[in-house]
Amino acid sequence: MNRKQRIMLLRILAAAALLVGLNVVPVAGWPRAALFLLTYLIIGYDILRKALRGVFHGRMFDENFLMAVATVGAIALAVYEGSGDYNEAIAVMLFYQVGELFQSIAVGRSRKNISALMDIRPDYANIERDGQLVKVDPDEVAVGSVIVVQPGEKVPIDGVIVEGTATLNTSALTGESLPREAGPGDEIISGCIDLTGVLKIRTEKEFGESTVSKILELVEESSSRKAKSEDFIAKFARVYTPAVCLAALALAVLPPVGSLLLGAAPAWPVWLYRALLFLVISCPCALVVSIPLTFFAGIGGASRAGVLIKGANYMETLSRARVVVFDKTGTLTEGVFEVTDIISRVMEKEELLQYAALAECASSHPISKSLQRAWGGEIDWGRVTDIEELSGCGLRAKVDGVEVAAGNGKLMDRLHIAGEVCDDAGTVVHVAVAGAYAGRIVISDREKAHAKEAVAALKTAGVRKTVMLTGDTRTAAERVASSVGVDEVHSGLLPADKVAQVERLLEEKGPKEKLAFVGDGINDAPVLRRADIGVAMGAMGSDAAIEAADVVLMDDDPLKIAKGIRISRKCIAIVYQNIVFALTVKFACLGLGAVGVANMWFAIFADVGVMVLAVLNAIRALRVRDV
Predict the structure, then answer these.
(1) What does the radius of gyration of the chain's CA atoms come to, in whole angstroms?
(2) Whole-structure pTM value
(3) Which pLDDT band, with edges at 50, 70 and 90, does 550 fall under?
(4) Residue-range domains of the chain with CATH
(5) 62, 158, 194, 327: which is the annotated catalytic residue?
(6) Is 194 labeled as catalytic in the residue annotation?
(7) Which residues contact 531 (CB under 8 A, 6 or more apart)?
């Protein structure tokens, strides 16, 4: 409990003790009335203050106003009747404050989960100066600087490890509890915790543009984006509260006036009491408190699972996703090219791969790098001479004095070498040795480990259709699509073509269905914006894609898409459960109170009891581990 909650608990205990004491110790007359009034002020002074402030600021029709009118009216009725029974007024306020305390604790628990996420913000960065480590503000570290991260410290800025190896705890970013090993050459994102070794990291971004800053910015902004359910509650409260106040006034005045007109006794106290009951029962606390709390808890729970949802409105949209469209590279595949097949005609496969890797050793192209990684040998520059790059075709060089050419089919045509017609799924590097065709090497993008499982999980989660859009070749696209199990694939697309395809799919989907697009690159930003809900890969995705998206997956795992949908559906289900439950109980109790069946204790349950049950239901949205 925080200080404010502890004070409230003391007030509740003090008021409860005084209320019990006044009903046990015989005190009569004005001393009794004064002690009851003191008890009422101890437990309700803040509600009275808020109600008065609301009246002066034109916001009188809220729960504080309803509670103040109902309890002050109950005290006035007791004075009018001369009964000296002030128990009900104090009990109503006492139980209302118990409910408020319970709500405060529940909200605090939810905020604590968000605060745990905020703990990933690093307070400093270590810079080495004159052999000593100096702590500086992360904002002061320039791009390209080398920072030092010691065991137990948070990585403050995104970068590349230049020295050292360590085990990293990435759970605050991705929701994964399994530590990750990292060493020289590995990219590292801010917010990770170094568990073991000393790392030297060359920064690649400013602190404000690093992953940890982006995450915190997204989570902090998420509460400002309201869902339709929250808007409904706000609009409902603006109409509902004045309506019940007028209904209570009519209940207090019209029946007695009718009795007078008919020549009967007016029974003012009876109808005034029922009107006060009506006000207590009508208080919309359960809705006003539980709906925003549910969304807040859902966003916090999803963040802990590595799914950043930028606002409650996006959570509501995500819950209705029935069509999911994927980009290929970096989304369903790793975006890392590797040798997947070697077809050699005149020599061993390893020898063919060695010739190709050495011939392309001077190139920085990803395909050249993938050839060198696949071969795995040390580049001996003394073995390679006469390197010539033929733009748009490939390279030609002498390896150990033998002429080697490696490139696409155009290179073979240019050198008048008869190659082979092939339909391999991937990028094909043709290799010629000593002027004769020697074979080909197929390089493909590797599928992500959970890609197939992710598509299957979406189908299980109720997604009706999955589509893949890519700028890659037809054979490569169809190979991936067939392997992971998507329903429809379109290849050879430019960014504008992807937008056109999404436009078509938006027209084809059902009126209540939503379309989600999942991508990671700069060229995906227009499609992410156009889709009903955009999902970006946060670890390796471009800043433009993350900025354009509505949901960010912090560990680039496509399996988290289905988890995000399930979390959002659980959250929305809880919202509707609370709306239906609260309104059903409220209107039933209002009817019973109006006809005189209910008393003030019943009204207390209708108000505080419903609120407590709704809040208990709302905090279930925090539990996402088994969703």
Answers:
(1) 34
(2) 0.65
(3) confident
(4) 125-220 (2.70.150.10), 307-333+450-566 (3.40.50.1000), 334-446 (3.40.1110.10)
(5) 327
(6) no
(7) 325, 502, 506, 515, 516, 517
